[in-house]
Design brief:
Layout lengths: L7 E8 L2 E8 L23 H5 L3 H12 L2 H17 L7 E8 L1 H11 L5 E7 L3 H8 L6 E5 L11 H4 L6
Parallel strand pairs: 3-4, 4-5
Antiparallel strand pairs: 1-2, 1-3
Length: 169
């Protein structure tokens, strides 16, 4: 998977056996400065330099992009998602099960930060650095249950401080 594919948003809403799909492409950065990709400049706390070096150049580009995309882009995507969600026949349900993929996870977090009232969400994330995104995007505690669907082949699984996956003791 190329780094640009991590910037595509895909959110699936599952309700009573029906799946609804929302997709959006985020604007890609024109260029990523090399200095933003060095291990010492990555915006990751609680990770060793060796763990950071373990990230591929592709994943470093993804983290830089998530960090440097204009906050208004995230807010606009969250508003678009909210409008789409409100138009669904299941919008009045008490709980919605959502599968968020790639940048759709950040959009879901931005959505939760903006909304005063929304149904309770059970969000399963795919192919995203959940723990890092929570630190970066979650500013308000909202009614949501998070589950990270990281497997050992996932690009983010190698760095537990990003994926949120705990290592076996």
């Amino acid at each position: 998977m190329g780094w640009r594919e991590y910037l595509s948003c895909r959110i699936e809403v599952h309700h009573q056996g029906v799946t609804y799909l929302w997709e959006k492409e985020l604007p890609l950065p024109a260029e990523i400065p090399l200095r933003g990709l060095f291990v010492h400049s990555l915006p990751i706390q609680r990770s060793t330099a060796a763990e950071k070096r373990g990230l591929s150049l592709q994943l470093r580009k993804v983290l830089w992009s998530y960090e440097n995309i204009d906050p208004q882009v995230w807010k606009r995507a969250a508003r678009d998602f909210h409008q789409w969600l409100s138009s669904l026949p299941c919008s009045d349900a008490r709980t919605l099960k959502i599968d968020a993929h790639e940048a759709g996870v950040a959009v879901a977090m931005s959505f939760l930060n903006q909304q005063l009232s929304s149904p309770k969400l059970a969000i399963r994330t795919h192919n995203a650095p959940l723990a890092w995104l929570k630190k970066r995007f979650m500013t308000k505690a909202r009614r949501a249950k998070w589950e990270n669907a990281v497997d050992s082949q996932s690009a983010w699984a190698q760095l537990p401080t990003l994926s949120g996956k705990r290592l076996a003791a």
